[in-house]
Every structure is written in C-alpha cells, then in structure tokens.
Amino acid sequence: MAQAAAVAKPPAPPRRRRASATPRRLPYLLIGPAALLMLGFIAYPVISVFYYSLQHYNPTKPWRDGYAGFDNFVKIFTDDPMFWDTLVFSAKWVFVEVGLQLLFGLALALIVNQTFVGRGIGRAMVFSPWAVSGVLTSAIWVLLYNSQTGITRYLADMGIGEYGTSWLSDTSTVFSAAVVADLWRGVPFFAILILADLQSVSKDLYEAAEVDGASRLKQFWHITLPHLKDAIILSTLLRAVWEFNNVDLLYTLTGGGPAGETTTLPLYIANTSVDAHDFGYASALTTVAFVILLFCSIVYLRLSKFGGENK
C-alpha cells in the first residue's frame, strides 16, 4: 500500500518585532530642549534687530519713536559719511590683521611642528596668548604703550624718540600700535589650527619627494600648502568675521580714536546704541553689517572652492 510521503514543512520564521520608535527618537528627544533653547537665544535677538531696524527707537526721546520703514537704511547710504569711513577702516583692519596673522601663524606652526628639545614648552608659550581675553590683552598693551612707564619711555632713555610720546594718541602710529597688539593675540589661533592639520600630513610624501630631489621649498609648495588649503580657508574666514566684529580690543585700547581713526563699523554701532541710545538706527547698521558679512563669506567660499579636491 502506497502511502504519500508527508512533506515536512520547514518551520515558519519567527516574526520580527517592530523596532520600537522610542530608541530611534531618543537622541532627538535628548538634544531637543538644548536645541530649542539655543534657537531661542539666537533667533530672538536676530528677529529683534530686524524689527528695530524698521523703527525709530530712542528711549531718551520717546516722542520720536514709531515706525520708520526704510528711513534708517536710506540715511545709512545717503546721509551718513561715518558709515562709509568706518566700513573702509573695517575692511582695512580685517585685510591687514588676517593677512599678517596667517603669515606669522603659518611660520610658527611650521617651527613648532619640528622636533627639538623643549618643544612642549615652546608650543605652550606660543599658544598661551590665545587664552587671554580681549579686554585683558588691551590692558596689557595699554601698559606697554604708556608714555610714562611703557616702551616709549625706555626707547627715549636710549635716545630713540621723545619722552611723553604716546603711540595710541598719535594718528600716524595708532593703527600700527593696534595691529601689533591684536597680532599678539590672533597669531596663536592660526598656529593652532595649522599645526593640527600639519600633524596629519604623511611623512611618506616628504620622503618620496626627497628621493625625487625636491627641495624644501618645493615640498612646502606642492605638498604642505595643498594639504593645508581647507584649514587656511576656514581659519581665515572665521578670523575675518571675528576681526570685523572686533570691539573689545579697539574699544579698550583706543576707544575708536584719536579723531575716529580706529573706529570700525561694529564699534560705531556700539557707540550709536550705547552712547547715543539710538537703537533703531544701530539696528539698521547691524542689519547692513550682517548682509555684508554674509555676502562676503559666500563669495569667499565660492572663489576659494572650500572642500573641493586639490589639483
């Protein structure tokens, strides 16, 4: 008697449980409160600035307060020569400071990247000025430039210059004096970023270049600089924005003087809002400065091809 062989069916695979949505959402739930808090601290001031830029708002003259429309912006571009003067000086200040800081920072990074006795102490000394606040930096250099106890006093003792000379009160020397003070604080920033990127350059590239007979200059030009491209672009952009918004050092060092020679656009905005209490006009100036920085940053990143491949 033929019997049909029973075909054993394989056991059905166990059903997969649906992954709980909670573990996947947990990171977002954890960072959500902090993100909302940061958004509030950033969004509210920005929106307030845009709002007050369209207002006449001066607490000392409340009878003039009210909607201004674009009157503040028209005044900026047609009836405020101080705006153009401070904008030109801001561009000059950023160009000189960022250029010199990059040059000296690159040189320092290349030096401390070498192997020598006491390299750790040398790096600490090079990077230490970056830890000093802008106001404290200004206080240090105010003492150094003091006409009675500072550098000029010792130079006069050696027969260089005259007693009582103050570089910060002379229109012919104040810019150079302010540049040197800010260089002392800004150069370590470039040195830190560039040194960090230098550490990632493969030594095999330099060894291969030496075998091919490449000089130190050619190695620097064809190996080091291309590798540092993105680090240099990012550091110069960040430092340019910070230098443009530099208020603490110049305000403490020179107060924008003498005769407005060192007044940047942000310092002019600070004086307009804090001293003149014209918050509406100061907000309009801030909006214009924001648009200028945003436009220049986008153009710089496009022209420099940040993040692109090195050819």
Describe what you observe in this structure.
With 311 residues, the protein is mostly helical. The chain has helices spanning 21-52, 71-78, 81-112, 119-127, 134-144, 151-157, 174-198, 203-211, 216-244, 248-253, 265-275, 279-304; strands at residues 55-56, 66-67. A two-stranded antiparallel ribbon has the order 1-2. The relative contact order is 0.13.
By secondary-structure content and strand pairing, the structural class works out as mainly alpha
Low-confidence stretches: none
- Total strands: the figure is 2
Helix segment tally: 12
Please trace the helix and strand order, writing H or E for each element. HEEHHHHHHHHHHH
Main beta sheet: 2 strands, antiparallel
In which order are the strands of the major sheet placed?
1-2
N/C terminus separation? 83 Å
The mean pLDDT is 85
The 3D shape can be described as: globular
Radius of gyration: 29 Å
Q: Which bin fits the share of residues in helices?
A: 55-70%
Give the amount of beta strand, in percent.
under 5%
Short structural description:
The protein has 12 helices and 2 strands, in the order αββααααααααααα. It has 311 residues and is an all-alpha fold.
Please render the helix and strand layout as text:
Layout: H1 21-52, E1 55-56, E2 66-67, H2 71-78, H3 81-112, H4 119-127, H5 134-144, H6 151-157, H7 174-198, H8 203-211, H9 216-244, H10 248-253, H11 265-275, H12 279-304
Antiparallel strand pairs: 1-2
Helix pairs in contact: 1-12, 3-7, 3-9, 7-9, 11-12
